[in-house]
Design goal:
The chain is mainly alpha-helical. The protein is rod-shaped and about 70 Å long.
Length: about 80
């Protein structure tokens, strides 16, 4: 519920009863709760991947720095 409250707080029209709103379908005919649940799951999956990519990028940068230092030392 906290996730849904956060995601819907800036919608153009205020939602008075979030549970009732989630129980209905959106304009595309999808169950709102399923759409927001999938979004919640996707956000949880992306976080570890993003940190993995970030760590890999930092490791690659460190390798480049090391290679640059070695190249400078051999010149």
């Amino acid at each position: 519920m906290n996730y849904c409250q956060e995601k819907t707080k800036n919608l153009p029209q205020e939602i008075n009863d979030l549970e009732a709103w989630l129980a209905h379908k959106n304009k595309a005919g999808q169950n709102r709760w399923e759409v927001y649940y999938q979004s919640f799951i996707d956000s949880r999956v992306k976080q570890p991947k993003q940190s993995e990519y970030h760590n890999a990028f930092e490791q690659w940068q460190e390798e480049l720095r090391t290679k640059e230092r070695l190249a400078e030392e051999t010149v």
